[in-house]
Amino acid sequence: MSDAASTRALIAAYYDAFNRGDTAAMEEMLHDEVEHHVNEGGIRKGKALFSQFNAHMTDSYRERLTDLVIFASEDGSRAAAEFTVNGTYLKTDPGLPEARGQSYVLPAGTFFTIRDGKIARVTTYYNLTDWTRQIS
Predict the structure, then answer these.
(1) How many other β-carbons are positioned within 10 Å of the β-carbon of residue 30?
(2) Per-residue confidence band for 2, with pLDDT thresholds at 50, 70 and 90
(3) What integer is the mean pLDDT of 68-87?
(4) 7: how many CB neighbours lie within 10 A of its CB?
(5) What is the rounded CA–CA span in Å between residue 93 and residue 83?
(6) Are 33 and 49 spatial neighbours (Cβ–Cβ below 8 Å)?
(7) Are 107 and 129 in contact (CB under 8 A)?
């Protein structure tokens, strides 16, 4: 398998775990020094902070990703994924509108850096204004 193919397989497995709600499996695919760049937020460094983020997200949102397309550089060091987020807002997130079980469908994308066969950077983008409009 080429480096690009290995990277595409890693990212596909990561999102398969996401869709199963298996955050432990997702975290196993992360480099110990992972950097998580949050949409319109800060940078979380390390698996422990990524795990805290996952716990918060699982508590506040139920999401399933569809229409997944994965891209990878030839050397496999970088990747991107485009997808549709199909979600339900379960619990009010501080600073955001009140959660009442609202549904949303949102295009999104993530950029990755791969190091030592693991995901070393996760940078996700989506339109927060569109999400807010849908759940308001």
Answers:
(1) 20
(2) low
(3) 98
(4) 25
(5) 23
(6) no
(7) no
- Neighbouring residues of 51: CB distance < 8 A, sequence distance ≥ 6: 23, 27
Beta strands in the chain (DSSP E): 30-37, 43-45, 61-72, 78-89, 103-115, 118-126
Question: What burial letters (b/e) apply to 87-109, b meaning 16+ CB within 10 Å?
Answer: bebbeeeeeeeeeeeeebebebe
Measured CA to CA, the distance from residue 90 to residue 101 in angstroms comes to: 5
Rounded Cα distance between 101 and 20, Å, is: 20
Q: Which amino acid is at 87?
A: G
| Mean pLDDT on 109-122 | 98
For 17, residues 6+ apart whose C-beta sits below 8 A from its C-beta are 23, 25, 26, 29
Report which DSSP code applies to 101.
Answer: S
